[in-house]
Specification:
- Pfam families: Sigma70_r2 (PF04542), Sigma70_r4_2 (PF08281).
- This is RNA polymerase sigma-70 factor, ECF subfamily.
- The protein is mainly alpha-helical.
- The chain has two domains: 96 residues, Rna Polymerase Sigma Factor, Chain: A, CATH 1.10.1740; 85 residues, Arc Repressor Mutant, subunit A (Orthogonal Bundle), CATH 1.10.10.10.
- The protein contains nine helices and no strands.
- Helix 8 crosses helix 9.
- The longest helix is centred in the N-terminal third of the chain and has 23 residues.
């Protein structure tokens, strides 16, 4: 579990000033957890290690782009890892086969961890809003977000017509937007 006293935002701002000690502290704080997440997403340790390495290179190069007003530093670095992993999967034309319930558990676990570690009202509200969306709308959204699946892939995976999937995603995102911004 991550250290709840670690100041991600200040550390990223120091990285933007090219503070190598701050970068090393960030690496020491998050590399293990990021590797575990990458292994889960990619299914292979060697690919996950490459992905984490690439993510940290991007974090170092792009630290100046981090804006604390837009969200937590920890969420920012994990989003870089997630997009790097999804790009790696797409470039290889494959996805990791996981049961559909894993997606729901992973989303809940990630949101619970974020709630405990970050204690930000937006994250609590997002979790509450996601839980309020019907499963048949929430599930395709989570498959798209956590797995990076296209609408076609989601339709095939759920054995549901493409138009229905698109409609459910649109309706789910609309409900999520209305919940987040009443």
């Amino acid at each position: 579990m991550a250290d709840t006293t670690f100041d991600y935002e200040t550390t990223l701002e120091a990285c933007a000033r090219r503070d190598e000690r701050a970068f090393q502290a960030l690496y020491n704080q998050e590399a293990g957890q990021m590797l575990g997440l990458a292994i889960t997403l990619l299914g292979r340790r060697d690919q996950a290690e490459d992905c984490v390495h690439d993510a940290f290179v991007l974090i170092w190069r792009n630290a100046a782009r981090f804006q604390r007003t837009l969200g937590s530093g920890r969420a920012w670095i994990h989003s870089i890892l997630r997009y790097r992993a999804l790009n790696q999967l797409r470039s290889r034309g494959r996805t990791v086969e996981l049961d559909d319930d894993f997606i729901e558990r992973a989303a809940d676990d990630s949101l619970q961890a974020a709630d405990l570690l970050e204690q930000q009202s937006e994250q609590r509200q997002l979790r509450r809003c996601l839980q309020g969306i019907e499963r048949n709308r929430r599930h395709p959204i989570l498959l798209a977000f956590y797995r990076g699946l296209t609408h076609d892939q989601i339709a095939a995976r759920l054995a549901t017509p493409l138009g229905t999937i698109k409609g459910r995603i649109r309706a789910g995102l609309r409900a999520l937007q209305e919940c987040l911004h009443p």
